[in-house]
Amino acid sequence: MQCTQQEICDFLEVDHKTLTRWCKRTYKKEYSQVYAEKKSGGKISLRRLQFRLAEKSAAMAIFLGKNILGQSDNPVLDADEEMAQRANEQIISLASLINAPLPSRELPVSNDTSNGGDG
Description:
There is one protein chain. This protein has 119 residues and is mostly helical. It has a domain at 5-73. It is 64% helix and 0% strand. The chain has helices at residues 5-12, 16-27, 31-54, 58-68, 79-99. Helix 3 (31-54) packs across helix 4. The radius of gyration is 37 Å and the shape is rod-shaped.
């Protein structure tokens, strides 16, 4: 449950000294050592439940991705990814230039026949 020592004592209605003695007698360790060991088991259980929930909940999958896998809504690009992104932008820009229609280049037609043509 990840409770504090005080919460455990309150729930069991014992003094913290009683809890400490019980830990020494039962586990042959200090309370803090026992707590640290048991806390890890609690985290494992919580992660197991979260992963099961992630199969049904996109929000949980996103949460786990961010907190466990280090994913982000705004990822920081490394140098190679940044260069690839710039290259892709340049390719897209060139493609739009290639696919753009050419401006009309029609030459004006002259109806002048005074320069010695048949007439």
